[in-house]
Amino acid sequence: MRGQVLLTNQLGSADTDGALDERELNARYARRLAELIDDESFPGVSAALLSGSLEDEGDFGGEEFRFGLNTVLDGIEALVTRRATGRRR
């Protein structure tokens, strides 16, 4: 979750005039990831990033954030439940 928020903020701040929509920001993100991937070590990942297949018109970032938030909250709920029942694990 923290990483997603930081990433979204960094990509958004790079678009100082607000000219890029979410699809264009996602494409920029995929291109930047592709620059970091070693083609020889990770040819499949590199090909996927450069193919445009990861550019989604949906709300993937929002879905990722909700999934991460729900996972963290589920973990907190489990911890509270364990402590309330006196169980260590």
What are the salient characteristics of this protein?
89 residues, mainly alpha, 4 helices, 71% helix, elongated
Summarize the structure.
The chain has about 90 residues and is mainly alpha-helical. It is built from 4 helices and no strands.
Explain this structure to me?
The protein is an all-alpha fold and 89 residues long. It has helices at residues 2-14, 22-36, 43-51, 60-85. α2 packs antiparallel against α3. The longest helix is centred in the C-terminal third of the chain and has 26 residues, at 60-85.
Strand % is under 5%
The biggest beta sheet is recorded as: none
**Which H/E pattern describes the elements?**
HHHH
| Mean of pLDDT | 76
Low-pLDDT windows of residues: none
User: How many runs of DSSP E, i.e. beta strands?
Assistant: 0
Estimated helix fraction = over 70%
- The structure class reads mainly alpha
The multimeric state of the shown protein is single chain
- What is the tally of helical segments? 4
